[in-house]
Amino acid sequence: MEAFSPDKPQGSQEDDSYEISPVDKLRQSFSESCISHTQESVGSILEEMDGLTATVLDIGSYCCKIGMNGLSKPEYIFPTVIGTPKCIGKPSTDFNLKYGLDAYKNLPNMNISFPLEFSSDIDWDEFTDIIVETLPLLNSSHFSEDSFNEYSETDYSIYPFIFTERINNSLKNKEALIELAFETLELPKISIQNQAFCSLISQGKTSGLVIDCGENATSVVPIFDSRILKDESNTILVGGKNLNHFLMELLREKYSFHTSYDREMARFMKEELCYISPHKFDYTKIWLGDSQSYTMPDKTMLSIGVEQQLCPEALFNTSLVDLDDASLQHMVFDSLTKVDSSIRKEIAGQCLLVGGTTQFRGFEQRLVNEVSSLSKELGKILEFVEDSSKEAQRHISSWIGASILADLSQTHRDMITEDDYEEQGAKRISRQLNT
Ligand SMILES: Nc1ncnc2c1ncn2[C@@H]1O[C@H](COP(=O)(O)OP(=O)(O)OP(=O)(O)O)[C@@H](O)[C@H]1O
Question: Of ligand 1's atoms, which has the minimum distance to the CA of residue 391?
Answer without folding.
Answer: 1
